[in-house]
Amino acid sequence: MIGNAFEDREEPPGASRSASSNVFPTGGRQAAAPEIDAALRTAFEGEWARVVATLIRVTGDWDVAEEAAAGAFERAAVTWPRDGVPRTPGAWLTTTARNLALDRLRRRGVEAEKVKEWIVEREFEGGTGGPPDPADVIADRDGPGWDDRLRLVFTCAHPALPMEARVALTLRTVGGLETGEIARAFLVPEATMAQRLVRAKRKIRNAGIPYRVPPPDALPERLGGVLAVLYLIANEGYLASSGDRLQRLDLAAEAIRLTRLVTQLVPDDPEARALLALLLLQHARRDARAGADGELVPLDAQDRSRWDAAEIAEGLRLLETSARVAHRTPDRGPYRLQAEIQAVHARAATSAATDWAQIAARYDELAGFGHSPIVELNRAIAHGFAEGPQAALTALAALEASGSLDGYHLLPAAQADFLRRAGEADAAAARYREAIALARTAPERRYLERRLAELA
Amino acid sequence: MEYALFYAAGTDPQPYDPAEDDIADWVADLEARGVIEYGVRLRPEQDATTVRVRRGELLVTDGPFTESKESVGGFDIIDVADLDEAIEIASRHPAARLGQVEVRPFMQWPDAVPGQRVVPAGLEERPVRGQRYFLAVVSDPAAREEATDVAGDAGDDDYPEAWVQEMRTRGARLFGEVLRPPADTTGVRRRDGRVIVTDGPFSEAKEWIAGFDLLEARDLADAVEIAAKHPMARGGTLELRPLWEFDPSTDHVARTAAEAADRDRRLEPSADEVLATLAGATR
């Protein structure tokens, strides 16, 4: 073993903070060698959702499943540094979690024999004798592990749950995020988020929400809700709504992983494919979006050589096939339009070469899907770049008058930027000050302060 | 799992279509699947009577408990595998197009006998001896607390064991159950062929149906007397609605026309008449 385990308290680079925080006991644990730490983190990121998902299927109880999974990871943190990492960490974790769940159910007074029967029955017979769960079909095609996680995604995103609970529950159960982290991401007190999660799990039990991927005839109706949840998770990752960090790459990566799973379930759905393309094209810019101090680097100032070429290529390829799949339904869906906008940016060799007219046209089409003030804001900005600052300022003034973006820092920030381009420095400065007062994350605030300073 | 499906008018109904909104196929399908346990349709709101007991005083008023436009027009009890099957069934009921359906699970008691049905077997075959009423037990926790504070008129939260026993002996109560709260409710609508599933009930009212009983009474005065004895009459509100004779095999279009005409005809005596009858009976 290389290196002094007891001195090494640094987190390995690239390790997800959130992944580690709710599993590893913080106080008094025996510090592990970096390889063990890395193995634990890899196991957490790769196996958390799978272990929870399997335990939910086996026990039918969400709380028991989560506690048992957390217990198994805690036990791993203690025994792996001592005994070494098991050959198949996933199987080790699942077995340990299942034993913990069994203990827990027995302590609750469920008769031991009944528990055993129940678990064996559920695990080996599977299902209720109805038509096969689409998740099982996927499992047969792509090997073990897919089925339970996919079930979990669809259960957490069930339309009988309120939207905010769907996103939170998916992040907690599928993504393994801590309640406190989710609460901070959505700007609510931790107690409120804990209540929300408890209520969602209670409703799943009390209302009888099934733990499965809906049958093919119900799938089209359910898919929209699932994609919306994944989109919201990615959005939170792309631009964190609070805190010191600009991006939550763990959330963005999780959303991509889950969307990939969904596209395997519905390979012919153009919108699912387009969403994956959109998320990849956005994620590809992660390294260029933040400067050395973690400050925000706007699109026109990003070093395009730092964009992830492989992800961009995959995103563009997906978009092409999405367009081909969508040929039968020629209407562009909202995810495809957004992905196409990102694709225009991705294809431009330089910021100046961006085809803003095409982007503005896509935003016009996107605005037809509903009244999203954020879409209107981006639409105004696109027209500003395509036609000149005055076009943007007129549209932004109308948006401001509507009051739909009151308190949102990016509206005065956009106004400031176009005023600056129009040569109205004083008016621009006033808008920058407004935006700074409203900014939600420290990096965004620093970026706006720098722009303000540059005006003087 | 057993669910109650409550039907209500909607704020954005689809136009009536005799072909799509015929209920006969729906009923036939559910009967063939053995999923449906019991279903009734309720007489219109003007035949509703609300019963409360405050400070020992019996208050009988005309009309439903809520001023909302979305009051319940009928319900079915179904026994299905899970919520998704309940949603599938609810979405095909004409009310999902013309209004909305609320899917409510029943309260599971810790001492419940597994497999026991909400609706007693053989109820359908039993001859109707009097007038059947849907007795909605309406809960408003805020009002209940207030009633307790002001009048010492404690709202009894417990399952009304004594009342159930007495009414069963009298043959007045056919069955009844407590429903899970609004948080566990799912709304189902169908608009332009798409099924819309939402969290929560259709009504934002702070009062909601917490449970119900099916009564068989001589007349409304008898039913009011039965309702007044229910413990929840003191803390909550009880609503009595006569059932609407319903035969799914009759000509659908003719039935709809007849019901539309019937809507304006009052079947029940007014609240004042009931109170007068009750006063006469006790004198």
Properties at a glance:
heterodimer; A: 456 residues; mainly alpha; elongated; B: 283 residues; alpha+beta; twelve-stranded antiparallel β-sheet
The helix content of chain B, as a percent range, equals 25-40%
- Strand count of chain B: 12
Discrete helix count of chain B: 9
Low-confidence stretches of chain B: none
Query: How many helices of chain A in DSSP terms?
Result: 22
Mean pLDDT across all amino acids of chain B: 84
H/E element sequence of chain B: EHEEEEHHEEHHEEEEHHEHH
As a percent range, the share of strand residues of chain A is under 5%
Helix content of chain A: 55-70%
Walkthrough of the structure:
The complex is a heterodimer of chains A (456) and B (283). Chain A is an all-alpha fold. Chain A contains 22 helices and no strands. Among the domains of chain A are: 33-108, Orthogonal Bundle (Rna Polymerase Sigma Factor, Chain: A); 145-266, no CATH class. Helix content of chain A is 68%, strand content 0%. Chain A is elongated. Chain B is of the alpha+beta class. Helix content of chain B is 29%, strand content 31%. In chain B, a hairpin with a 2-residue loop joins strand 9 and strand 10. In chain B, helix 6 packs across helix 9. In chain B, 40% of the residues are buried. The model of chain B has no long low-confidence stretch (mean pLDDT 84). The chains are: A mainly alpha (456), B alpha+beta (283). Chain A binds chain B through residues 128, 130, 158-162, 165, 199, 202-203, 206-210, 214-215, 218, 221, and chain B through 1, 3, 81-84, 86-88, 103, 105, 180, 183-186, 194-195, 197-200.
